[in-house]
Amino acid sequence: MWRKASAALLLALAVGYFYGGRPELPEQILQFIGLPNFQTSSQGNKSLEQVITDAWEALITLPSRQWSKVAVGVNACVDVVVTGVGLLQALALDPGTGRDHEVLRSKEDLRETFIHYMKRGAAAERFFSDKEVFQSVARAAAEYPGAKLYVGGNAALIGQKFATYPDLMVLLCGPVGPKLHEMLDEQIVVPPESLQEADEFHLILEYKAGEQWGPTQAPQANRFIFSHDVSNGEMSSLETFVASLEEFHPELVVLSGFHMMEGQGRELWGERLKEAVAAIADIPKGIPIHLELASMTDKDFMSRIMQEQVLPIVSSIGLNEQELLFLSQAGEGPHAALPAWKGIPDVGRVGDILFWILERHGRTDPSSESDLTRIHFHTLAYHVLATVDGYWGNQAAAVMAGARVASSQACGLQAVDVSKVELKAPLEFLSSHLEPRERLSLNPEEPVAVWRRGNITFHLTPVLVCKRPLRTVGLGDAISAEGLVYSELTRQQPF
């Protein structure tokens, strides 16, 4: 009798753990009640991480038709990467409470905004309006022990990732100074009009998972980026970029840098945004355009990008969880009342927002004037590719390829090392918090969950999260670039 009661109790515990998103039940309990241990697999004693890695290697294949020429623009710079807490201490700043600032005007604003995002483990990027104060901070960063210089700017980083494919010719337009030009891959073509005498520098303050500064502890590794970058802020290379396409004849255009405009002030970005949209409209029809979004704080600015001007003229976008939620808040979309994600973003809520973007602002109706048919969403634990049916192919491979590069690059490796990564994605989840909702599970041996809502298909794959990431900057850019390399158009769109 007592054994039956114990078994019933243990079964109830198992079900509660499983549906509460805690598949890691103690092995002894799982053996006692005969449920599978989700931390091991049906492939002998292989870990889930090994099973997923093996599956990626078997299932990720390039599409039958691949891009041969890609044009990327328009933000480029040199990144100065330092440990954030160390630099702020070197600047004689003390820890305290965090507070977000849309624009940084002082070292105190920098300290408060850094703490605000460090506490959340969230990435963010801000404009530093005071040139002299920024330059003094930049000098301190460059002289800080262990500071490193890297290729920076979304466009340049995406171009660098594309350049790892030897058969792919890459054009990069942006403010390219002498140091950046020296650091770029030789395969990247930079038009003479994009070269300038001085480099633009961006400061990247990184922190590790569990790192503490005063009362603030980072829940996960991430970074905070800031700059006083007028060239990228004005997207001054955009017209040069569009003009260069006529001679280069790309098959794909990738745009980034709109977020930099936000720091210029509402009056300036309002006018410049109109000019930018007019320039993009001159890109020849038939060439797909991917837009890479980044951290923003002005809801009016995001609303203009989303509703009136930019989203309808691009065919694909890439974004992370912060940008996705902010986009929904700016457009009063699903779950807009949610102030921030708590931990791993809920798949159902993410799916609702992705569906809303494509349904409201995309080409789900063939008679729509919008060109948007694809969204590549990435967060720490998993990625989702949402596409309107009939336009994009090889998306299962594309989403897995993006996750694989995130898992390896975060650890500073060329391939995934299963001893250095861990699975954090939920193995079971709801497809939506609205209707229709569907309970889905993830099979590690075929690590892509697929579901449909209307004529939109979703592909989800887990990320094997690096336990001790060496560098988080540029991961989103590498993810989007890799996803695009493995994507193909299945029919011509009226871009």
What does this structure look like?
Mean pLDDT is 88; it is low at 1-38. α1 (2-19) crosses α2 (27-33) and α7 (154-162) packs across α17 (475-485). A hairpin with a 3-residue loop joins β15 (374-378) and β16. The N and C termini lie far apart (69 Å). 37% of the residues lie in helices and 21% in strands. The protein is globular and about 55 Å long. It has 495 residues and is of the alpha/beta class. The chain has a 10-stranded mixed β-sheet with strand order 7-6-1-12-13-14-15-16-22-21, sandwiched between helices. Strands 3-4-11-8-2-5 form a 6-stranded mixed β-sheet. It has 17 helices and 24 strands.
Write the layout of secondary structure elements.
Blueprint: H1 2-19, H2 27-33, H3 48-59, E1 69-73, E2 77-83, H4 84-90, E3 103-104, H5 107-120, E4 124-128, H6 131-143, E5 148-152, H7 154-162, E6 169-173, H8 178-183, E7 188-189, E8 201-207, E9 212-213, E10 216-217, E11 222-227, H9 230-233, H10 238-248, E12 252-256, H11 258-261, H12 266-280, E13 289-292, H13 299-309, E14 316-320, H14 321-330, H15 347-361, E15 374-378, E16 382-388, E17 392-393, H16 395-409, E18 421-423, E19 428-430, E20 439-441, E21 449-453, E22 456-462, E23 464-466, H17 475-485, E24 488-489
Parallel strand pairs: 1-6, 1-12, 2-8, 3-4, 4-11, 6-7, 12-13, 13-14, 14-15
Antiparallel strand pairs: 2-5, 8-11, 9-10, 15-16, 16-22, 17-24, 18-23, 19-20, 21-22
Helix pairs in contact: 1-2, 7-17, 13-14, 14-15, 16-17
